[in-house]
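User: Thanks for the earlier help. One more: Leucyl/phenylalanyl-tRNA--protein transferase. Can you show the sequence and predicted structure together?

Assistant: Of course, both are below.
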Amino acid sequence: MRIVKLSSQSLLFPSPESALRDPNGLLAIGGDLTVPRLREAYEHGIFPWYSPGKAILWWSPDPRAVLFPAERHLSRSLKRFLRSNPFCITLNHDFAAVIAACAHRPHEGSWIGPEMLHAYLQLHLLGYAHSVEVWQQGQLVGGMYGVAQGALFCGESMFSHVSNASKCALMAFCRHFAAYGGELIDCQVLNAHSAQLGAREIPRPRHQFLQQLSDLQRKPLAPGCWLLQVLPPQ
């Protein structure tokens, strides 16, 4: 298989089934990060991930890491932590600050460059991308953002400036999303952090993740899901 170079004249992507095995999920190169192209990508289980200043790379890994909200896992220590109620958790109060914090990781590096920042801010302004913010004494200390696809939410990135902030963001969002009819959170690639919270891998093929994506895109959420609001801690 060969990596497809995207045409600037077309928004079409190759089938996710044609993605490379090594590196896992690499599907295409090039194109742009305009809202129409990003929407086309997410509708087909494809997302951009590349180093700032380099060519845009598009991915659809197999297996796919997902989190079913009902399967979210709170450890005993996290439950004790939540009982202390140290945070105020909000939805869509400051998307720009959340994605900027995800991009600024001095000790880790980041794949979120200026082009990505601008692109996802445009998605947010048009109502397609959303953020969860974690506040402590009025300061933003954690959060996450992603792209909505009906009853499926594509998680993109999260950050934490204090212990447990990003975990609390995800747990609060799981509860909120499920309450409005959300059924699945796409975590893209499994890591120790997401696995600890209940994420697991499922196959990508059309009878698994891609089929669920297609089905859930057509399921509307209850009204008010994405309105600015304060979320219960978990």
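User: Great, one quick takeaway?

Assistant: The chain has two domains: 4-61, 65-231.
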